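Tutorial, part two.
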Amino acid sequence: WIRTRQTLSGERHFVDNSGCDGLTGGTFEFLNGANTSKARFIIVFDSGFPSSGDSTTSFDNGAWHHVVGSYDGSRVRIYVNGTEENSSASSVTQGAGTRPFQIGGDCNGNPFPWPGFINDVRVYTRALSSTEIKLLRYAPWVVSRTGLVGYWPLLNANTEGGHFEDSSAII
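Running the prediction step on this input gives:
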């Protein structure tokens, strides 16, 4: 879940572990696309950076939006409020990331701060089905925890600094 307090200018990250430096060694970036107030999910490979493309929904209206990025080995997808809004084909194998996982935009020392709030961040080692993504929005407790490797409830956290504990072992 994300909410912003303003119209975005420049690149801003919700969640990533890419290093944000255009180099390999990460696995993904979740950010506003093409300097807009629309979401984009990028997979980081040694051979390139396939992207979902921008969502159709803008999220600069002060409302909460449920945003999910997914990669199933053949398509990179972006979902907003339970609906797939864009995708692109990619069949490159994703490697293991060596970069730090970060929430809120301070990406490996590169400042891309998210100007708002983030809630309920989850990371899976598998692509969720479209049904599971819809359930995450309305009934997250019924989604299988298979492949869940990180969960940060954050509870409407302002992302301007701070350390958040992984709660995946307790849900």
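The longest strand covers residues 83-89. In part three we will examine how such features are distributed along the chain.
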